[in-house]
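Pinned message: reference record for DUF4262 domain-containing protein
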Amino acid sequence: MSKEEIKKNIKEYGWHFLFVFDPNGEHEDFSYSIGLEESFDHPEIVIFGLKKESAHAIISDIVEDIKSGIKMESDKKLGNVIGGNFEVIFKPIKIRAYKEYLGTAVDYYDKPFRAQIMFWPDKSNILPTEDGCEVTIQNEALTIV
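Predicted structure (tokens):
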């Protein structure tokens, strides 16, 4: 993905979507936005463990909320993000993890920017940040927040 393609999407849509997968299956798939910081003064959004289409749909919905003035605050349970009665929580990513996980965004911005992971719950509405969560495909994300 070239910097020009990313710029074009940000100019047209306000953001760019990136899906990252490990063909060897050693790391969880994840997706993230590029351009939210630039377009909306909002941290980039990262989601682990969802299929490309699902992650794109969720980030697209979040971007629409951001455009209407809603901020996805860190460290606070939020409803009405993924639908149903489910809650999510956003946690900032440690700066030391940016290059490894957000390399394309690091190259694009070439300056400091903010990013946060959206953790989504299991069927019992328990988040991976809480004891008893049955969803384990976000465990890798817990190590970088």
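Pinned by admin. Summary line: Residues 52-67 form the longest helix (16 residues).
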